[in-house]
Specification:
Blueprint (H helix, E strand, L loop, with lengths): L8 H4 L22 H10 L14 E2 L11 H7 L10 H13 L4 E5 L2 H12 L5 E4 L4 H9 L3 E4 L20 H11 L4 E7 L12 H14 L3 E4 L3 H11 L8 H9 L4 E5 L10 E5 L2 H14 L10 H14 L2 H20 L12 E5 H4 L9 H13 L1 E2 L1 E3 L1 H4 L15 E5 L7 H16 L7 E5 L10 E4 L1
Helix pairs in contact: 2-15, 3-12, 4-12, 5-6, 5-11, 9-10, 13-17, 15-17
Bound molecules: ligand PLI.
Amino acid sequence: MLQTTPQTMGQQFGRRSWAEPWKIKMVEPLRVITRADRERALQDAGYNTFLLKSDDVYIDLLTDSGTNAMSDRQWAGMMLGDEAYAGSRNFYHLEAAMQKYYGYKYLVPTHQGRGAEHLLSQAAIKPGQFVCGNMYFTTTRLHQELAGGTFTDVIIDEAHDPASTHPFKGNVDLNKVQKLIDAVGASKIAYISLAVTVNMAGGQPVSMENARALRALCNQHGIKIFLDATRAMENAYFIQEREAGYQDKSLAEILREFCSYSDGATMSAKKDSLANIGGWLALNDYDLFEEASNLVVVYEGLHTYGGMAGRDMEALAIGIEESAQDDHMRARIGQVRYLGELLTDWGIPIVQPIGGHAIFLDARAFYPHISQDEFPAQTLAAELYLDSGIRSMERGIVSAGRNAKTGDHNRPKLELTRLTIPRRVYTQAHMDVVAEAVKAVYDHRETTRGLKMVFEPKYLRFFQARFERL
Ligand code: PLI
């Protein structure tokens, strides 16, 4: 068992500087292709960074999902995979880790987060009901809509403003929830979908106080709350850092309290939990668990593996434990902050405050001359790749998709390009290179032209859409 260190290593020495609480045992070479080859690769990919080949990428900041470097303990755990079809011992390890750190009663494993979203949406939404959420997430909202639900955004207004420095920009506006209850009645609300941290707002946290108040409001009306716990451990770090009364509590204690205000959670274990694949749905209600356990065998796999290999469940169980180490989280969020502070010092517009898993460049502020319908954030991701082979992703109008009823583009206020930092993968020197690349693209912003979409898939278009230069 790893020991939770009460102080980070830098604090123990009584000095300001700190470093990652690990050393590197295995390396993977990187390569940079020429600018002419990058131009060709980008055209072949239809100016969509999701369609680039990984071999053509230098520093890959597409996502923090499944891109984590596992520890030696996790790799050792991979060798202990019990690949039984039913009742794998690794499932019971995973169940115990989830119960210990997240505190829910029942576990339904899934292949990744969207598998859990599918099961929850099918089990808990009746067609015609509303689902309130603190800002949409792409796959989460789609599964809610496919189950016949209507998503309603109840995040505080500050979340839609890249410059607002609210410390808990992911918070739910309880008045917005109350208004929907007054307008449609509590029975028309399937549940509250509470994401922590809020990915699309810039990795912004939700405070403990807000979760507690939301629980009280929902108790009055008999409404359930389900967390999207994908980055809940990162959320706990912000509570420890910013919320009165939590400075001396461990991340594990904070997470347990936070989860106690909800009725269950969906999880993409490819993020916080330091694994490369996996997910789960956790529930406290037995009837709902029974329903989800029945659905999982249709869509994912048996209820004791849910689409994961035994070895993956073992790596995940160990990853959950490692993710709760205060030292780990300080280094993880510290690295994101290092990059964000460099960019801020250089006057480059990014979402403030700096969030947990990524830096979000404000593409509207980069390119005020490119209208939203000409995809400024998609353009910025393409320009960054072209400049330096760094892969980022669009989080603006393309990701927001179309209105399920009218078919028109959803036009989010936030038009962002995300530099997502994989956990335990890149060094501070890589962050310096990234910052210099962003600066070079910023310095050429006035001559940059937008894009037009020439192919649009029906679902989650940002993954596979193709563009051409205007
Ligand atoms: O990619 P999945 O299916 O394991 O998980 C879906 C998912 C659910 N909720 C949240 C907050 C996510 O961030 C998420 C996946 N995010 C991806 C892939 C990302 O690049 O942010």
